[in-house]
Write a structure and sequence with these properties.
The structure is a single chain. The chain has 329 residues and is of the alpha/beta class. Helix content is 35%, strand content 17%. The chain has an eight-stranded parallel beta sheet with strand order 2-1-3-8-7-4-5-6, sandwiched between helices. α1 crosses α10, α4 runs parallel beside α5 and α9 packs parallel to α10. The radius of gyration is 18 Å and the shape is globular. 55% of the residues are buried.
């Protein structure tokens, strides 16, 4: 496919049943089957950084399997994302499961390579440790980025058992390294007990604003999305979603569940409300299928990744040709 050809989309489900064939994300082509890629969906099967239940190393493939049911037209955003830009499945980044420091370096290097092709990343974790090397790579290209962090937890703690790189510490490290725009940082969906009030004080000093799950419930998704858009402005934005931002009723398959979370509908609507933001890459982490029921968690995750991919595809198409983007809806 040349740069002037139409993107290659998913396998036609009227010719090959959805449950047949390779389980790439949304049944899209592999990276080696296309000549260029605008959005690379890449897995990182790594969960050595977890502090409670393991299993997120299997999350990426569970999301891919659940994504078989995704269809090519997204009515909520009035767009056909796989016709607007070339989206391809880049397979997995193979990271050392026995050495966290080496794994972080491997993930960063692989992300550098993919971003170096001009693609944006939709990364499927894996545990939240992987957000740090991904942010490092994105910041090399865009400078310090705005961050929206959807999670039940802050993930700005200092260390666990003396370890600096864990799934509860990536955003403290990112602030310390200067790769985040500290004027545009927000947690969304946080809730549950903390180690102490100092956790909130430290988090605020780093520049984070907090939208709790109770805020979403009381104020509604439209108001929350508007608040987030105003905070982000036109800055390059990275979105990181820990699936435990959802209530365990909507995402039982995760490592550190907390009661009182968002519904899958609330998460999807907030993401759709961010479609005007300059989304440069995103990740979705902490799906642990061993604790899932009837694919509830992986289905929700696949739809969240679909919305993020749609946002990126629309923006890519518009930047190339506003008329082509309108024609491909």
């Amino acid at each position: 496919m040349s740069s002037t050809d139409s993107p290659r989309g998913p396998i036609d489900s009227s010719r090959v049943p959805r449950y047949a064939g390779p389980a790439t994300f949304a049944r899209l082509p592999r990276l080696d089957e296309v000549e260029r890629t605008d959005v690379a969906v890449v897995g990182v099967p790594f969960d050595t950084g977890v502090s409670y239940r393991p299993g997120a190393r299997f999350g990426g493939n569970a999301i891919r399997e659940a994504s078989r049911l995704l269809r090519p037209y997204n009515p909520a955003q009035d767009a056909s994302p796989f016709a607007l830009a070339q989206v391809a499945d880049a397979g997995d980044i193979a990271a050392n499961p026995f050495n966290i420091n080496e794994a972080v370096e491997t993930i960063e290097g692989a992300a550098d390579d993919l971003l170096g092709t001009g693609a944006r990343l939709m990364t499927l974790g894996g545990d939240h440790t992987i957000a740090l090397p991904l942010l490092r790579s994105v910041a090399k290209k865009h400078g310090p980025v705005a961050l929206l962090h959807f999670d039940a937890h802050l993930d700005t703690w200092d260390t666990y058992f003396g370890a600096e790189y864990t799934h509860g510490t990536p955003f403290r490290r990112a602030v310390e390294e200067g790769i985040l725009d500290t004027s545009a940082l927000s947690h969304v969906g946080t809730r549950g007990p903390l180690y102490g009030k100092q956790d909130l004080t430290d988090d605020e000093k780093m520049g984070f604003g907090i939208v709790t799950s109770a805020d979403v419930m009381r104020r509604g998704v439209d108001e929350i999305a508007d608040q987030l858009r105003q905070r982000i402005g036109d800055r390059p934005l990275y979105i990181s979603i820990d699936i435990d931002v959802l209530d365990p009723a909507h995402a039982p398959g995760t490592g550190t569940p907390e009661a009182g979370g968002l519904t899958s509908r609330e998460l999807l609507e907030i993401l759709r409300g961010l479609s005007s933001c300059h989304l440069v890459s995103a990740d979705l982490v902490e799906v642990a299928p061993a604790y899932d029921h009837a694919e509830i968690t992986s289905v929700a995750a696949s739809h969240a990744a679909y919305e993020l991919t749609t946002i990126m595809s629309r923006q890519i198409a518009t930047s190339r040709s506003p008329q082509n983007a309108e024609d491909a809806k």
